[in-house]
Amino acid sequence: MKVIILILSLLFVNTSFADHIDSITIINNGKPGGSFNARTQLYKQGLEDKGYHVDYLDVGKISQAVKMFKESDDPTIMVYANNQVFKQDLFHTDQNFVLLEYQQPLYICSANKTFSDPVTVAHGKGYDPDLIRSILGEDIVLVPYKNSGAMLKGILGGDVDMMINNQGKSLTYMESGEGKCEASDKLPTMQATVIARNVDIQEIRELLLHITLTNDFIDYHVSRKLQRPYTTFDNRQTELDYVKELESQWKY
Question: Do 25 and 62 lie in a common domain?
Fold first, then answer.
């Protein structure tokens, strides 16, 4: 009888313990060594430190990541850039928007060489051509590129005279000494957002915001010159007020 009671007790303890371990899927659509990849790894570590079982899916293709996110029946989060999110109609809905993680300007870069006639300008496929022409002039040839890395290779290889690119690739270009770049105050600000489905949005928002305030996360943002936004979600509450509210509940 004692043996039976002991076995039942162990089963009860194990079941109870398992019930308190939450599982969550993270879809990583970033490339190895890239910013998205690094930040999703930080989220993974932070969630595991909080006791979550994390199913980390490494998906390099954006369209595939979006499809997996839309079709997921499990608790799922994904870090995404605003231009792609708007394009896929995933951003800023009550059902999935969690957190505006950072923002950074787009840069206009020019090569140190005699420009072709007409001037050729590399840009991302999602960029507004009319807006670009309103800034740089009508007499330009716009050359759409698949991604920021391809644009950088294009201008370094002399295929284009100018490029409009994100902060990371623009800083890399300036470090090469092949040209100069200036942050634009007329082009849209690039933003990274965290989206989620099949979760308690408020609960996951508080948890992920806490992770973004850890030393490792802040150090990474500083090293990549990523500017944290003044507001987090849906412009309803300032980040400073929200953080102050959370800090009053946290125990250090």
Answer: yes
Stretch 11-21: mean pLDDT, rounded? 38
Half-sphere exposure of 79 toward its Cβ, with a 13 Å CA cutoff?
A: 25
177 lies in the same domain as 57: no
Write the pLDDT tens digit of every residue in 96-132.
Answer: 888 777 777 889 999 999 999 999 999 987 788 898 9
User: Rounded mean pLDDT of 15-43?
Assistant: 72
Chain centroid to Cα 224, Å, comes to 13
Q: Are 83 and 126 in contact (CB under 8 A)?
A: yes
Same-domain check for residues 21 and 87: yes
Q: What is the DSSP letter of 20?
A: T
- Helices 201-212 and 215-223, interaxial angle, to 10°? 70
Taking a C-beta distance cutoff of 8 angstroms, is the pair 202, 80 a contact? no
Q: Which domain holds residue 228?
A: 2-103+191-247
Domain shared by 35 and 122, yes or no: no
Q: Take residue 6 and report the two structure tokens written for it.
A: 């002991």
Q: List pLDDT tens digits, range 181-225.
A: 999 988 877 777 888 999 998 889 888 888 887 778 777 767 766
Do 127 and 165 belong to one domain?
Answer: yes
Number of domains making up the chain: 2
Question: Mapping DSSP to helix (H, G, I), strand (E, B) and coil, where does residue 51 land?
Answer: coil
Cα 226 from Cα 42, distance rounded (Å): 15
Answer positive or negative: Cα dihedral of 24, 82, 232, 213: positive
